[in-house]
Specification:
about 20% strand; DNA-binding
DNA sequence: CTGGTCACCTGGAAGC
DNA sequence: TGCTTCCAGGTGACCA
């Protein structure tokens, strides 16, 4: 599930509950993730206080004073709060907080990771190489044009490259290009400034709307019974292969780009 | 450097 | 019912 809007929704969901809380115990049931859990993971976390929960792209960062815990949810990761310790299948790590609740990391596919690093976490190689936050003012058409100059990769592939812009994954790449009327196979470096301006606006609009939609169903997975409870966002093109376009009479098409499914309207997107 | 492919995992859905 | 195949929201290593 987690692209930027989903990660931001998780952040907003857990932040009020964990901010200022001390981690009194750590339960580790699985260490094999995208990057293996540090050998001293539990010891380094015990006794620390969570000062803040931030987000950078698709990464969550728990600020712990002179250390930080970077969390990536991969394809199937979930953070939830529960009065119970992590017992469910795929509930791999639990942080016991000083209000007797557990912050639980669940991830069936284990593509995610939990990385302990020295603060500030932005110095971590994974975060340092990230491009601009798409919802901040610094993400402009001019900035995008500079990073795409002379690139021959399709614009859809470029949008999913975290070095170009942070947090956009397979769904929102398709959604933003549809909103901007840009064909996903267009060479990134060939887009005019005007079209890039439209794309930047579309990215911000699509992401903001998704965050709003997620926020309304936040209670489903925060503070609940530990079940994921993905929010049902309504995609405009994603997953709508052979269904009618919401804007015209054409039918949505699916193609494959860099191994990932792309959805687009052959008439609206040129 | 660039761009493309595949591997890492589990589970759900569709096909036979 | 049960087996097989395909597919999934993300990286990151490797190769030409």
């Amino acid at each position: 599930m987690p692209e930027l809007p989903e990660v931001e929704t998780v952040r907003r969901g857990i932040a009020p509950a964990v901010r200022g809380r001390c981690i009194t115990d750590v339960i580790v049931r699985e260490r094999r993730f995208r990057h293996p859990l540090a050998a001293d993971f539990a010891e380094r976390l015990r006794g620390r206080t969570i000062a803040a929960v931030r987000r950078r792209g698709k990464y969550l960062v728990l600020e712990l004073g002179d250390e930080a815990l970077i969390i990536h949810l991969g394809m199937s990761g979930i953070l939830s709060l529960s009065p119970q310790p992590p017992l469910a299948k795929h509930a791999h790590v639990g942080l016991l907080l000083d209000d007797s609740r557990y912050l639980i990391y669940t991830d069936p596919r284990r593509f995610g990771c939990l990385l302990l690093t020295a603060s500030p976490a932005v110095n971590h190689p994974r975060l340092r190489s990230l491009g601009p936050e798409p919802l901040l003012a610094a993400f402009t058409a001019k900035r995008l044009q500079q990073s795409l100059a002379a690139k021959s990769v399709p614009i859809k592939t470029a949008l999913m490259d975290g070095r170009v812009v942070a947090g956009i994954g397979n769904i929102y790449a398709s959604e933003a290009l549809f909103a901007a009327g840009i064909h996903p196979q267009t060479a990134a470096g060939r887009l005019s400034g005007k079209r890039l301006a439209r794309l930047v606006t579309a990215i911000k609009t699509v992401l903001r709307r998704a965050i709003r939609a997620g926020g309304s169903s936040m209670r489903d997975f925060v503070d609940g019974d530990g079940k994921p409870g993905y929010f049902q966002t309504q995609w405009t093109v994603y997953g709508r292969n052979e269904l009618p376009c919401v804007c015209c009479t054409a039918f949505i098409r699916r193609c494959r780009q860099s191994g990932r499914a792309t959805y687009y309207c052959p008439k609206c997107q040129t």
